[in-house]
Amino acid sequence: LGSSLRGSLDKLRGKSRLSEEDVAEIVKEIQRSLIQADVDIALVQELSSSIEERALNEEPPGGTSARDHVLRIVYEELVALVGESTDLPLESQTILLAGLQGSGKTTTAAKMAWWFSKKGLRPAVIQTDTFRPGAYDQAKQMCERAEVDFYGDPDEEDPVEIARKGLEETADADIRIVDTSGRSGLNETLIEELKSIEELVAPDRNLLVLDAAIGQGAKDQAKAFGDAVGIDGVVITKLDGTAKGGGALAAVDQTDSTIAFLGTGEEVADIERFEPNGFISRLLGMGDLKQLAERVERAMSEQEAEDEDWDPEDMMKGEFTLKDMRRQMDAMNKMGPLSQVLDMIPGLGGGLMDQLPDDAMDVTQERMQSFKVIMDSMSEEELENPRSIGKTRIERISRGSGKPEETVRELLEQHKMMSRMMKQFQGMGDSDMQRMMKQ
Ligand code: GDP
Ligand code: MG
Which residues are listed for GTP binding in this entry (predicted)? Predict the structure, then answer.
């Protein structure tokens, strides 16, 4: 399917205006991919009309080809379809998991606990499933594997009572994840039980756990759970299988929520934070997104877009974040040590290099590896705004990454140093320099 979308796009090469047939053909290809990925027909229709509407009525920004123009619209509409990631601040909170039996709640509870522990927080899982035999043992074992606190009581029959005790017993935890029982289908007992637990726990967030293979049932399920307790976010599990999870988008739409996490396997570490780009690429097939992204990047640099995506120009303006630093570290891994890279830039050789302390460029492989692990324990906000990282956050990041606080501070120092360096590059306007940064 990837090749047919590419084929339709290639036909636009050299064109400066889009015809109705051009747009219809592209929309048809996208529809085909999305329907194959189980995306609800009504949502696909909505997306198609928006794309058609915009592609035919919006004036392409000056110098943008018809193809780049339509690609940008397609991309933006796809991002609007899948939504942003559910906001999950790295602070104390209680999260309730709801969903049908077998959707992956218990597994997700342990995975999420593991994820939060890697961010330096102390999570605990409270297992309230008294319905499924073996639920207690399963949850306990998974939490042992995740090395997180666990509360459950195999002898108690009342899930609300377990929740009540569980909250008391896990008072020391930062993040409390309340796992609930499911039933094979939607029914009154399940919903009433869930409501009672929710009332007692008063969670900060209710997440609905859905199997990636969910098809048309997603909407009804989402409505039932949404009406009962309100849904703030969705977790899509079993994305390691053949299903692409497009069905879950109907649940997101129905509950007016967003996607929080993706489950990609049976082990506790098989969890990813939802991220629109990656999910779109899963929906359409990798090749397509790659082309989309490349094209869109070009289209955007052509029209000084104030986009949240990484733009090398920002770096040249001195807004150098930890994310930029991580990208640079990745690039360096491919290019060789930073000092050598800098040596390759014409006109830079002596001057600037001499002003830097001797060990400034000494980012060894080992240190880079540590830095990466540390950055993985940071929140998006911290990566974007390293100045927000104070003493408490350093402690938390150190716990999460398993690296000494000293190393976290070194990373922040290194970032400051590189940031100063970027400021010095400002105004150089050297096209070679910019080309290097773009790599
Ligand atoms: P619950 O009934 O909602 O608590 O669901 P469970 O957490 O018990 O999961 C049901 C089954 O799905 C178990 O066999 C899990 O190992 C499996 N499972 C859960 N999440 C994933 C996933 O992301 N990938 C795969 N392959 N299996 C999963
Ligand atoms: Mg369970």
Answer: 99-106, 179-183, 237-240
Q: What is the CATH number of the domain that holds 67?
A: 1.20.120.140
Residues 101 and 78 in one domain: no
User: Do both 71 and 168 map to the same domain?
Assistant: no
- Which residues, 6 or more positions from 251, have their beta carbon under 8 angstroms from its beta carbon? 208, 210, 214, 218, 219, 221, 222, 231, 234, 257
Going by alpha carbons, the residue nearest to atom 21 of ligand 1 is: 238
182 is an annotated ligand-binding site residue: yes
> Would you give per-residue pLDDT tens digits along the chain (439 residues)?
455 676 777 777 777 778 889 899 889 988 988 998 999 999 999 999 999 999 999 887 777 778 778 888 888 898 899 999 999 999 999 999 999 999 999 999 999 999 999 999 999 999 999 998 899 999 999 999 999 999 999 999 999 999 999 999 999 999 999 999 998 888 999 999 999 999 999 999 999 999 999 988 999 999 999 999 999 999 999 999 989 999 999 999 999 999 999 999 999 999 999 988 889 878 876 555 555 555 555 555 544 343 344 445 554 555 678 888 887 777 666 555 555 545 544 444 444 555 555 554 555 667 888 898 999 999 988 998 898 999 999 999 999 999 999 999 999 998 888 888 777 765 555 555 555 555 4
Q: How many domains does the chain have?
A: 3
Q: What pTM does this model have?
A: 0.78
Instruction: Report how far residue 95's alpha carbon sits from residue 8's, in angstroms, rounded to the nearest whole number.
Output: 45
Residues of 54-84 as b/e, b for ≥16 C-beta within 10 angstroms? bbbeeebeeebbbbbbbbbbbbebbeebbbe
Rounded CA-CA distance 347/202 in Å is 62
Residue of 180, 211, 237, 240 to mutate, ligand 1, most atoms within 8 A of C-beta: 237
Query: Which ligand 1 atom is nearest residue 129's CA?
Result: 4
Q: Is 429 annotated as a binding residue?
A: no
Q: Does residue 88 sit within a domain? A: no
